[in-house]
Amino acid sequence: MSLLERQECPLKPIISSARHPRPAAVVPSGSRWPRRVAALGTAVALSVSLATAAAAAPDPKPGAAGNGLAIAKVKAGTKAERQKLMDLGLDVIDLTDTHAEVLLRGAADRAQLAGGHWQVEQVSDATDQLAAMAADRVTEARREAARRANPTSRTLAAGLPSGRVSYRTLDEAEQEMRELERGYPDKVKVFELSRKSLLGHAILGMEISSDVRADSGKPVFLTTGLHHAREWPTLEFTMEFARDVLQNYATDSHIKGLVDSSRLIVVPAVNPGGYQLSRDLTNEMKRKNCRVAAGRVPTRQQCAAASSQQLGVDLNRNYAAFWGGPGSSASTTAETHYGAAPTSEPEIAALTDLLNSRQVVVAVNNHTPDARLLRAPASPLEPVPAEVALYDGLARQLGAALGGWPTGPWPDVYYVASGVAEQEGLYANGTLGFTPELTPGHDGLERFHPRYQYVIDQYRGTGYYAGSSIRDALLIAWDAANDPRTHSILTGSAPPGIELTISKDVTVNSSPVDRNGRSVVLPSALHIQSTMRVPAGGRFEWHVLPSLRQSQQTSTLLQESWVVSCRNSAGEVQRSVRVTIGRGETKAVDMSGCPAG
To answer: Any idea where the Peptidase M14 domain is (predicted)?
Structure first.
C-alpha cells in the first residue's frame, strides 16, 4: 500500500479550494516550537527611531565575515506593513504577527530602513552569535572526526542514514555522491547539469532507480537543496534521503516499489558557489549567488570581497515564469534581486533545462527556516490553478507530515514572491512543486542553519521536531509522483530498442517590468523534450506530464499537444504523432511504423 493510500483523503483537499483561511505570512503566536533563544549580543537601543539605533550600534567593517552585522527588530503589525518591509529588498529574516527582524549589513541598509520611518524597537550586534555558531561548527567537526574514527560506536552514531553529526562541505557532498554511485552502480547515476555555476563549478545531480541507466519512461520525482546558500540543512536532507533510499531498498518494500517503478532525481546544491562562501564562513549569511555585475563572470575573490557581500542574484527569483514581479527586486543589493533577465543565472538555466528534459511530475525544493509548506500561486498576478483540488490536496498531506504546518499559496501563508521554482514548474511543464521551510524555531542568524542535532530531528521527526519529518514528506511527494492520477501515460507498440521522443514548444511570460519607461512582458521560449527506449518486447508505457498546460492568465488549461516521434538511422523524423492528453489520462499511441532500431 502506498503512502498516498494510507492517508485518510488521498489527493483530496482538506478545505475548499476557494478558501485559504490562514492569515498573513507570520509565525503563529502559538507555534508548537518555541524560540530557541541564541546569544544575539546586547541590545543597544529600545523603542527608538532607526537613526538613534544606527548611531548606537556598530557599523559593518571590512575583514572577517560577519563583522558589524546587526539585527533590527521592527514593528510591523499588519500584513500590508510586513509586505511593504519585504518590498524594500532588505534581508528580512523573520516575520511574526507583530514584528519583523531585519539583518543589517551596512550603513546603506540602515539608511533605507530609516527612510521609511519604521519603528525600530531594538538593534542587536550579531558578532557574539556568529562566534558561538563558529564554535558549534568546531565542536561538530570534532564529533564527526571521532565518529569516523570509530564508526561502530553507538554513542557517536546519529539518527541519520549516514550517521553524520556535522554539516557537509560541498566537496564532501560531491565525494559522497560519487561513492554512492560506485556502491550502487545499477541504481545510482551521478550527472552534471547542463550548465556550470557562475564560478564554473559543475552542478551535480543523482538519478536513483532500478536499472538507472535505462531510458525507461518512469515517472519522475525531483528534490533540491541550496537555492539559498545559507540554508545548509537543505543539502543535508537531500543527501540523507538519497542514502536512506539506497540503504533500505533491500528491506523496505515501500521504498523498493518506488525505486523499481519510478525515478528519483536529487540536486543537493543548486547554488554551489554561494554555499562554499557560506559554509567556510567567508560570508556565512550569504543568500544569493556570486553575481557581482550583470553580464560579467566574477572570480571567487571578487565574490568574497567585503564590497560584494550584498551583491548577487536570488536564484529563487530568477525563474522565467512571472519573473520581475511582486516580491522581487531590481536592486542589485536587495536580497530578492531577480537578476538581469529571466534565467540570466546559469544555475537557474541549468535547473530549467533539467525540468524541460525530465518530465518531473512532483518537485520539492527545500528551504529553511519558517515552518510552512508553500505551493503556487506565489504572486497576486497568478490565477487559481485549474487543478487546485489535486494540487492543494497533496500540499496538505505534505503539511500534515511536517507537523500540521501552515500550508497553501505563498501569499496566503508566507509572503508574495515572483520568479520562483513552483511557478516555473507549473506554468512551463505542469509540475506540482512545493517549498517546505524547514528547521524552524530558532532565533537570530542561527535559524538558517542551527546546531546539527536539529537537522537530525527534522529528518526523522523526533526530538525537537517530534511529529515533523521531512523524510515522511519526501516519501509522500514521491508516492504522489508515482500515482497515475498526477500525470499522464502513453502506451503503444514500436520496434524494440528504438528511441522515442516527446516534445513541444511553449512560451512562459515574465511579470510586467519596466524597460526604458515602458511596461513590457518578457517572453521565454522553451523547448521541452524527453526520450525513452522501447523495451525488448516492443510494448511501451511512458509516464509523462499532461500536454494540457496551466494558463498564466486564467484558471484554465491550455489545449496543447505533445508530438511523439521517432527517427531513422540518418536522424530524420520517420513518424510523428500528435497527442492531446490530460492529467490522469492514459492514451494509446501507434508507433509501429517506426524503423527498426
So the answer is: 166-520
Could you tell me if 276 and 170 are in contact, meaning their C-beta atoms sit under 8 angstroms apart?
yes
Query: In the Cβ-directed half-sphere of 575, how many Cα atoms lie within 13 Å?
Result: 15
Instruction: Find, among 327, 538, 326, 510, the residue nearest to 427 by Cα.
Output: 510
Q: Are 303 and 290 in contact (CB under 8 A)?
A: yes
196 vs 273: CA distance, rounded Å = 10
Tens-place pLDDT, residues 220-241? 999 999 999 999 999 999 999 9
Which CA distances in Å does 353 have to 358, 376, 507? 9, 20, 14
The distance in angstroms from the start CA to the end CA of the chain is 38
Instruction: Give the span between the Cα atoms of 289 and 271, in whole angstroms.
Output: 6
Distance CA 325, CA 321 (A): 10
Q: Which of 290, 322, 259, 336 is nearest to 524 (CA)?
A: 322
pLDDT digits (tens, 9 = 90+) for 422-481: 999 999 999 999 999 999 999 999 999 999 999 999 999 999 999 999 999 999 999 999
Confirm if 7 and 14 have CB atoms less than 8 A apart. no
Q: Helix (H, G, I), strand (E, B), or coil: what is residue 17?
A: coil
Q: How far is it, in rounded angstroms, from Cα 587 to Cα 573?
A: 22
Instruction: Compute the distance between CA of residue 225 and CA of residue 365 in angstroms, rounded to an integer.
Output: 6
Q: Are 106 and 68 in contact (CB under 8 A)?
A: yes
DSSP annotation of 14 = S
